[in-house]
Amino acid sequence: MRASGGGTISAPLVAGTVYFVIRLTDSTFQLAATPGGAAIDLTVDGISMIVAKDLPFAKVLELYSRLVDSWSPAHLVPFTEPYPTVVVATVSELSARRIQLISGVHSESMTTIEEEAMKRIEQWGKGQPLRDATATPPANLAVVASSSSSGRNWGCGGRIP
Predict the structure, then answer these.
(1) Is the CB of residue 34 less than 8 Å from the CB of residue 82?
(2) Please, how many CA atoms are within 13 Å of residue 11, restricted to the half-sphere of its CB?
(3) Residue 48 DSSP SS3
(4) Does residue 160 lie within any of the structural domains?
(5) Which domain holds residue 6?
(6) DSSP character for 136?
(7) pLDDT in tens, the chain (161 residues)
């Protein structure tokens, strides 16, 4: 928490201190000094306060990197640099949607983006080859399609940044 551009922080709060949210409604909350602690009684209103929540970007990216990796065509796993643009985009889209949900925000356009990304992954899992200018085409698409449509989790160690 901090004040923005000449603003002030509500007393007795201190800039840079971690506080814990007590959710009251979708748009209101109180703060506590400890998790599950009592609400802090604010004695002075703040002006232009910025309240930020730490978001688990690295964990979310790892989660969706593993998901995409496990459902990708066998001939591409493990992914190596340069990562196929469509794979990076899919991981990014899914990660952005999850971060948005963690933040308590809902967006119809992000819901649509997530649905399209999941459709892509489902198609890869059924054996549809990943199409990307940086990807090396397999020698035999029929073999790739039959082996990757088995639903097997290829689970190799390649990760997408």
Answers:
(1) no
(2) 2
(3) strand
(4) no
(5) 2-50
(6) P
(7) 778 888 888 999 998 888 888 989 878 889 999 999 999 999 988 888 777 777 899 999 999 888 888 877 776 677 778 888 888 999 999 999 999 888 878 889 999 999 999 998 888 877 777 765 455 554 444 433 333 333 333 333 334 43
